[in-house]
Design goal:
single chain; alpha+beta; three-stranded antiparallel sheet; 13 strands; about 15% strand
Length: about 475
């Protein structure tokens, strides 16, 4: 907590019309009508990128919070879509690369299967041809054996007994038998070699058939993978096409709505300036009244002391001393408690002079907007409790605040020279009425989505001495 003097100086330095928080809202709106691709968040982690993009969309939506809920939602969606587009296009490119890779695998396997099938056909034909050769060789061996038997297969003495014509005839018969025997031996050797060749060919055929079976299984799996990759690529392309289509539609909508929003913005700015003036006037009167009361009390005490002195014999008439107001005290003296019982996350913080989102055009040289409160991500129906004792200044639906829905203003009076008011917008219902006194921790409302709001949340402001300040400095 800063010192009282430093805190007051920071308030003086930061004091600007509240309408500034809407002055640059049209910056976002007008620029989004002319928006190109919003650069993706520069973060290493994908979750950080998603969070940064979500915050960027939230910033756009916050800047248009009190202008038009539909336009705020469209503008935020446009930022989201265009921020997601580069990633979606990269995912599509990656999916298409996987399709190309899967197609290459399928083509390669098909070529390998074709080669293996050709090898199988060749081996099968070779085995069939070798079988024919073996059959012919076996037949030839049989013929040789028969001729050998006829020509000279009998012992010489038996031939003579059976009546060989002459010694010359017998010699010729023996020569023929020897020749036949040599031919038979050669044929047997060829048959043995052919058998070994056939066995090798048969082994190669078994291996090729196993290879073909394995390749076909791989090809089936590759075809499935290719189809999965094609389906994924088609899905990614549909996502990209939709992002482009939705972005174009929203861009056209924002462009068409620009004149109406600009006119409405001027009205909102006037009304917001009026709201700021009203709160400042309320708190000015409260501080003046508190100071007058303190002065009157000081004078009363001084008169009583003077009277006591006169009764005791003192002389002269009473002249009241000049009143010197005490120094402004610490704002922590209000003892504000959190308006929610649970730990509700902050979706948009208090920010002075927040730049418009990257990629947007500057409008009238402003290039910023003020978010003079805190948006809490409270679900609809979340109980809202009075942060401190006070008096209800405004409650329920009202034309005082454009787009605030069910509003609640609680004045917490003046403590140590400081006037404080807490403000709640977009409540689903308000349980107290104007002029009612409330106690610290009392249930006063339920958060909601009324007014110009794009979702359940609670907009909470703290006004100190006529100026909005960061509630987190007070809670």
């Amino acid at each position: 907590m800063p010192s009282t003097v430093a805190f007051q100086r920071s308030l003086t330095k930061a004091r600007r019309p509240v309408a500034r928080r809407l002055t640059a809202a049209v910056t976002v709106l007008v620029a989004l009508g002319l928006l190109g691709l919003v650069p993706p968040a520069q973060a290493d982690d994908l979750n950080d990128k998603a969070a940064a993009l979500a915050q960027q969309a939230q910033d756009v939506q916050t800047s248009l919070e009190f202008v038009d809920s539909g336009i705020a939602k469209s503008a935020a969606d446009l930022v989201t879509y265009q921020g997601q587009l580069p990633g979606a296009q990269a995912a599509l490119s990656d999916a298409q690369n996987r399709v190309s890779a899967a197609t290459g695998v399928v083509t390669s396997l098909a070529a390998r299967i074709d080669l293996a099938q050709q090898s199988k056909d060749k081996i099968t034909a070779q085995i069939a041809a070798d079988a024919e050769k073996a059959t012919a060789t076996k037949a030839m061996i049989g013929q040789i054996a028969a001729q050998s038997y006829k020509a000279g297969g009998l012992p010489v003495n038996l031939t003579l007994i059976l009546g060989a014509g002459s010694t010359s005839d017998l010699a010729n018969s023996i020569d023929l038998a020897e020749q036949a025997l040599r031919s038979q031996t050669a044929a047997l050797e060829a048959l043995t070699a052919q058998k070994a060749t056939n066995q090798n060919a048969q082994a190669r055929l078994v291996a090729v058939e196993a290879e073909i079976k394995d390749l076909k299984q791989q090809a089936d799996a590759a075809l499935v993978a290719e189809q999965v990759a094609r389906d994924e690529a088609a899905s990614k392309k549909a996502t990209v096409d939709k992002l482009i289509s939705d972005s174009a539609a929203l861009n056209a909508k924002l462009e068409a709505e620009k004149p109406r929003i600009q006119a409405q913005l001027k009205q909102v700015q006037v009304q917001q300036a009026s709201v700021s003036a009203q709160i400042a006037e309320i708190q000015r009167k409260e501080r003046e009244a508190a100071e007058a009361a303190a002065k009157a009390e000081a004078e009363r005490i001084a008169r009583e002391q003077a009277a006591a002195n006169n009764n005791g014999g003192g002389g002269g008439g009473y002249v009241p001393p000049p009143y010197v107001p005490p120094a402004v005290g610490d704002v922590s003296a209000f003892g504000l408690q959190h308006p929610f019982a649970a730990n509700v996350p902050i979706t948009s913080p208090f920010v002075r002079n927040r730049p418009v989102p990257p990629g947007t055009a500057d409008f009238n040289g402003t290039g910023y907007y003020d978010h003079t409160g805190i948006d809490f991500g409270a679900a609809c129906g979340t109980p809202v409790y009075a942060p401190a004792d006070g008096t209800v200044r405004l409650a329920g639906q009202t034309t005082v605040v454009w787009g605030g829905g069910n509003v609640l203003w609680i004045s917490h009076g003046v403590v140590q020279g400081n006037a404080l008011m807490t403000v709640f917008y977009h409540n689903s219902s308000v349980l107290v009425r104007e002029g009612q006194s409330v106690k610290r921790g009392q249930l006063v409302a339920y958060s909601g989505n009324t007014g110009n709001s794009t979702g359940c949340h609670a907009h909470f402001e703290t006004w100190l001495n006529g100026t909005p300040v960061d509630p987190m400095l007070l809670l």
